[in-house]
Amino acid sequence: MTYQHFPKVELHTHLEGSAPPDFIRSLAREKNIDLSRIFNDDGGYIFRDFAHFLKVYEAACEPLQTPQDFYRLTKAVLEEFASHGVVYAETFVSPDFCGGGDVVKWRDYLAAMEQAADEMSGTITLKAIATIIRHAGPEQAKRTARCAVETQNGFLTGFGLAGAEMMHRPGDFAYSFDMAREAGMHLTAHAGEWGGPDMVQETLDLLKVERVGHGVNAVTDPDLVARLAEEGITLEVCPGSNIVLRAIDRWEDHPIQTLREAGVPVTVSTDDPPFFHTTMTAEYDSLARVFGYGDDDFRALNETAIAAAFCDDATKKAVRARLEKA
Fold first, then answer.
1. Domains in the chain: how many in total?
2. What is the extent of the structural domain holding 125?
């Protein structure tokens, strides 16, 4: 049995990291950019470890140079997501890759992505989260925050933090998160994928986020797990990503079920699906195989996700209507 056509909600994806390899290769050829080094013989992305993954990711972004490129990228990604039953998705997008943090340029890129999303809205709903690239540093983060607060709308609804988790501490980005919070934006941040529970704790205390990206290492601290459950902090868990990057050794060792049983709100996402050889279908099928999840479990995961989604109540109502078909 496969869950390909089961309606799904996905909260943790990176737009550039979701680019089909064929799309990036084609775009690179159009622009005479040689990216052969980032692909294996089968045409997929190739990397050694997390540090190398970040370099390959940034290389794959090189052909993405104009708003039109991001329009085409968004359409290609949404078509792929929809083919796996995703009816609502949120994606991280960075002004760093879209105009270098210049607000005027960023507006054009954002408008192109929103246009593509609007054209696909009959099949799948997309919202965007403007995202700091952590390893670019706190000063660049402030430019990202300015881009976010000056362009937030019904499409760009959230603000986040991604990148190399072990570079800088959460508090280094507090100014940027304060800007976004005061502007009324929803907040999330990657933490606890490579860092320990202390990184999650500091992210909650200093950035005051509503959701945590990954967060799986929180499981080693019972008090933190209890706090996540009590405060209703949703974890955007990406099991396939964790395993491919060796943050967790095996599917059988993944703490997603332990966290669920402890009352922590947990969702399932793909992160950067073509990089990690996954899809939402593969994530659901693996959860069914390893943990015995069935339709009721997936309905519960979807309800947790849409409840935590960074969209308005009218959008949530419309998405729930699509989910009821499962």
1. 1
2. 8-19+64-323
Residues 222-251 pLDDT 10s: 999 999 999 999 999 999 999 999 999 999
Q: Report the SS3 class of residue 211.
A: strand
Q: What are the helix (H) ranges across the chain?
A: 21-30, 50-60, 67-82, 103-119, 138-151, 174-182, 197-202, 222-231, 239-244, 256-261, 280-291, 295-308, 313-323
Domain membership of residue 239 (yes or no) is yes
Q: What angle do CA 147, 107, 90 make, to 5 degrees?
A: 75
41: in domain? no
Asked if the structure places residue 267 within a domain, the reply is yes
* Residues in CB range of 317: below 8 A, 6 or more apart: none
Catalytic residue annotation: 193
- Cα(250)–Cα(66) distance, integer angstroms: 39
Distance between CA atoms of residues 222 and 232, nearest Å: 15
Q: What is the pLDDT of residues 254-298, one digit of tens each?
A: 999 999 999 999 999 999 999 999 999 999 999 999 999 999 999
